[in-house]
Amino acid sequence: MYMKKLVFGGMLIVSAASLVGCGSQIGSSVRQAVSDNQSAQTLVEWENSEANPEALFANWRHEFMVDSSKRESMKTELCKELQALPAQDLTLFENEIRDENNRALVSGCKEELLAQVDEHFDEQRESMSVPGHALKAVQSRNSFRFPDNTQKRDMSNGYMAVRGDVARKEVVLTFDDGPHGLYTDAILRALKEVNAKAMFFATGKSVRTNPEALKRVAADGHVIGSHSITHACLGTSVACYKQMGNRNLTFDEAAAEVRGGHQAVFDVLGWVDPVFRFPYGETSKDLKAFLKTKSTGEFAWNIESDDWRTQSNEQLLARVLANVESQGRGIVLFHDIQRRTAEIMPQFLRELYNRGYSVVLLTAADPSAKYNSKLVKRKQQLP
């Protein structure tokens, strides 16, 4: 998931320190993660939880490395507590279980835990009318095609998108935080089957980890912007203050995050669309002005999926469709680092089509803008 441990100016920020430890503390932390995920009202609130799995595992890794006397007891206790979770709750920890950085922590139960998660999603698929699979190239049997609907927006002096200025029954599909090494490809397959184009807001850290996945997004004709380097909270709110270790980033630090996300995409593709999404939607007056001076559109959203929350596939599908119908048009927020999102995508697209919605791709009015971003540095050509 998102990075809870960040380095700025040589200062290391580590959250969830109070939950480091072994024995029963691991069990209480695991259960707290499930509780906090369900009770959080917003993504930034969930990310600020000391029991967020990324923070927990980061601190457990630290404890594992510095105190060899606790290693076996930590491994045993962690496996025991994760194995005891209901499968749906266990999915909250799937990305951390898969993360190679956590191999030592879950070495005694990794395969069993992943098998438990896979069995859960196998059961979930049985209740879905359109097959989808995040890990395998499964044909969905979607035989319809959305009509082409590319719309241009002038971003030369900046552009603020909440609904994207689309008409009734038009939606813009957006995916944050990827590309993911597994789930992004499944989402691309679902989109391609039905001629749907989307906007992907990639983080620099994910781009550096999965450059080939980013190239596949580009090859399918989607718009690709950025979402900062590390998913840092860039604004000046209290939420950002807490998220960033009881400090707000300076303007220069925040601007570096914006530039760095764009640079990562540009370095892989040789272009980056002039669109940016602030993590958590947290920004500031100065950062908004900065994007305008860089001829870059700011993309928010008005249709939330809450796909970061543990829930059944049916619950996620019902939630996002209800939000689409409530708004009637606009920008839908998904995350392509969420397995459940990839699993429901084929049926979600069919539901959109059957309900008479059109999928819109928003692009810059100037087709050359993607090659001339004011946020990136180009490599010097040798004479």
From TrEMBL:
One protein family per Pfam: Polysacc_deac_1
SUPFAM superfamilies assigned: Glycoside hydrolase/deacetylase
Record-level Gene Ontology MF annotations: hydrolase activity, acting on carbon-nitrogen (but not peptide) bonds; metal ion binding
Cysteines joined through disulfide linkages: 79-109
Gene3D superfamilies the record matches: Glycoside hydrolase/deacetylase
Keywords: Hydrolase, Metal-binding, Signal, Zinc
Annotated signal sequence range: 1-16
Protein name per Swiss-Prot or TrEMBL: Putative polysaccharide deacetylase
Organism per entry: Bdellovibrio bacteriovorus (strain ATCC 15356 / DSM 50701 / NCIMB 9529 / HD100)
